């Protein structure tokens, strides 16, 4: 019997504020179609701003709020880091294909 959890995808992202402070985040999504990390990366990069940025509020990615947000100098964009396969349990109940489509 195949272990379904081994095939989940981890989506890692970063927020770099105006003070150059980095905040890292990740979510784990379902991957029933066995989409590999490289394929997922190619699919999402076409949908990202300049091939690397996204607005978390528009795609449902949890905001990173370790440091106070300064509305006068900080920006809203987060940076995509990578996809990787994981056996971790999903933190978001969405499959990889639908998740990537949210970036359109």
Give an account of the 3D structure.
It is a single chain. This protein is of the alpha+beta class and 104 residues long. The protein has one domain (4-101). It contains three helices and four strands; from the N terminus they run E-E-H-E-H-E-H. It has helices at residues 37-45, 56-59, 96-101; strands at residues 8-16, 22-29, 53-54, 78-86. It has a four-stranded antiparallel beta sheet. Strand 1 (8-16) and strand 2 (22-29) form a beta hairpin. The chain is globular and about 45 Å long. It starts with 7 loop residues before the first strand and ends with a helix. The relative contact order is 0.33.
Question: Main attributes?
Answer:
single chain; 104 residues; alpha+beta; four-stranded antiparallel sheet; globular
**N-to-C SSE string, H for helix and E for strand:** EEHEHEH
Based on Cα principal axes, name the global outline: globular
Instruction: Give the helix level as a range of percent.
Output: 10-25%
Number of domains: 1
| Global mean pLDDT | 90
Our count of helices gives: 3
Summing up helix and strand content along with how strands pair, one would put the structural category as alpha+beta
How many strand units? 4
The main sheet comes to: 4 strands, antiparallel
- Stretches with pLDDT under 50, minimum 5 residues: 1-5
Ends: how far apart? 35 Å
Strand order of the largest sheet: 2-1-4-3
Strand content: 25-35%
What would you report as the Rg, rounded to the nearest angstrom?
Answer: 14 Å
């Amino acid at each position: 019997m195949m272990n379904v959890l081994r095939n989940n995808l981890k989506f890692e992202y970063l927020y770099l504020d105006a003070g150059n402070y980095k905040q890292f985040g990740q979510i784990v999504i379902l991957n029933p179609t066995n989409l590999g990390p490289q394929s997922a990366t190619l699919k999402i990069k076409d949908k990202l701003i300049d091939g690397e940025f996204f607005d978390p509020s528009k795609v449902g990615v949890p905001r990173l709020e370790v440091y106070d947000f300064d509305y006068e100098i900080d920006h809203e964009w987060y940076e995509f880091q990578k996809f990787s396969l994981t056996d971790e349990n999903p933190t978001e109940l969405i499959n990889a294909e639908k998740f990537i489509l949210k970036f359109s």
